[in-house]
Amino acid sequence: MSPTGTRAGQAAPLTSSPPPVPNVLVTFPIPHVMLVTLNRPAQLNAIPTTQHPFLLQLFNWYDAEPHLRAAVITGTGRAFCAGADLKEWHDNNDAAAKSSASPVRNPASIIKSIAAPKPADTARPTPAQKWPADGGFGGISNRRGKKPIIAAVNGLCLGGGFEMVVNTDLIYALESAKFGLPEVTRGVVAIAGALPRLIRTLGRQRASEMSILGGMYTARQMEAWGIVNEVIEGDRDALIKRVLDVAAKLADNSPDAVIVTREGLLAGWAAEDPQPATNRVEGTIYKAMEGADNMREGVLSFVEKRKAVWKDSKL
Questions:
Q1: Which one of 110, 170, 193, 286 is at 20 to 30 Å from 201 when CA atoms are compared?
Q2: Its GO biological process terms (predicted)?
């Protein structure tokens, strides 16, 4: 990649290079599209704590890069993402246990220590310390963002990996992919944002089945339940080809209209009535789009019976 971030197939150079992310491949296979590949196949693409801020930074850069209109995230090997790095989690728990251990003391010293203020437990990170609050697990699970992300689920999609996928805009999966929230079987909780989203997508009973039983589900089942948009037969190459076709179609639309439409859709996640939500979108981001270059171009191209030529979004 050149210093400006240009790849073969890009219609124009990027204004800056993407920030580096450990164990992640960032490429630009077709114009206006960023492909993010989680690349820890030996660990089933589990994401360690230190990686979350880097992924958030990458997706913030994507939102700010005017030439990009769609992002795709996938994994290498037999997993999309198996969630948190449980070995790291165990090491943190072990360190916390060791830090709290102490030699036998006399009763007076024990009473004194109970009365004394307790220091914060810094060995075991809280969820907010494990991943950034504004991005969540993998920079995605709680991301609102400006531009769409498409998930290309190539294999196991578990725990935090599934929490990421639930908050993407479109989901395509290989027929062999498996989904699940096994946290309860390991004594932990899916706390990165998926639970309230699953309630809204699946309803209480199906969301409960997934989250408190901790089972595994096929791609076909997730498609039937409305989580997965489309199941792809074949191998990973077939999946990526299909998803890049979808990304190209998305990028062919007005970038302004996509951004504003997405914001309107996300208003449905918020605890506000449809009319105030629509008014909020109309009075803010839609107002900035109305009458701007891409809206005028869309109408003009229809009148002139030609394909629209979009400018990069300034929203």
A1: 286
A2: fatty acid beta-oxidation
DSSP letter for 84, please. Answer: B
Say if residues 74 and 35 touch (Cβ distance below 8 Å).
yes
The backbone region for 187, taken as left when phi is positive above 0, alpha when psi lies in -120 to 50, beta otherwise, is left
Instruction: For strands 178-180 and 156-158, give the pairing.
Output: parallel
d(CA 137, CA 55): 9
Give the integer Cα–Cα distance in Å for 16 and 4: 5
Between CA 157 and CA 179 the distance in angstroms is 5
Q: How far is residue 255's CA from residue 147's CA, in Å, rounded to a whole number?
A: 9
Q: What is the pLDDT of residue 288?
A: 83
91-113 pLDDT per residue, tens:
555 444 555 544 444 433 433 34
State in words which class domain 24-86+129-251 has: alpha beta
242 in helix, strand or coil?
Answer: helix
User: What does the DSSP 8-state code read for residue 291?
Assistant: T
Q: Where are the domains of the chain?
A: 24-86+129-251, 255-303
3-class SS at 270? Answer: coil
